Amino acid sequence: MIGLGQDSSHIIYGIDLNKDWYTLSNQSAAAYFIQEQFRIENDIPGVGVSLDENYILNYADKEFLNIGFTNIMLVFPQDNQSNLDKIQPEQFYAILKYKSETDYETFNEKAFANIAFVLMSQFGPPNKTMKESWGANFEWNLDNAQILLNTNKTDHISLIYIKT
To answer: Which residue of 17, 29, 94, 147 lies most exposed, with the fewest beta carbons within 10 A?
Structure first.
């Protein structure tokens, strides 16, 4: 299976997940602290933040921009407030939530295929695929990352990149 023994550069759709908190979020140390406290109080691991819109516009591939993801989020490790110029995100989430079930039914297959095509161009074919009545799931297992692409009527389309 392709993917085994393959390393990722941690660059997905032109978004460099090797960059630091300040570069990717354009947020302050105070924003990190507030988000960290919220997630600790709610027993949610990591420190979540939206990817900076200017970073997306300047660096993301055109194919990524054309998908129209409605939420793009990064998760950084906790307890690193003094190293924000060095810490890198551990996870990347890109979500496409349609306005209605009708829109989902109309557009999801094409969007899912476009996302999968770009991922396959960069990372090769997925290690696992599943298509059921509820939706579909593609999974890439690389030596240093895992990528999950899902579609279903509840969550619509989600792309998750996890550094391992």
So the answer is: 29
Burial (CB count within 10 angstroms: exposed 0-12, middle 13-18, buried 19+), residue 102: exposed
Sheet holding 135-141, edge to edge: 47-50, 71-76, 91-96, 156-163, 145-152, 135-141, 128-132
Q: Which helix (H) or strand (E) holds 84?
A: none
Burial class (CB in 10 A: 0-12, 13-18, 19+), 47: buried
Matching residue, tokens 């209605």: 100
Full-model pTM: 0.93
Cβ-based neighbours of 85, under 8 Å, separated by 6 or more: 20, 21, 22
- The H-or-E segment that residue 107 falls in is helix 101-123
- Over residues 68-97, the pLDDT tens digits come to 999 999 999 999 989 999 999 999 999 999
Domain boundaries, the chain: 11-163
How far is the C-alpha of 49 from the C-alpha of 130, rounded, in Å?
30
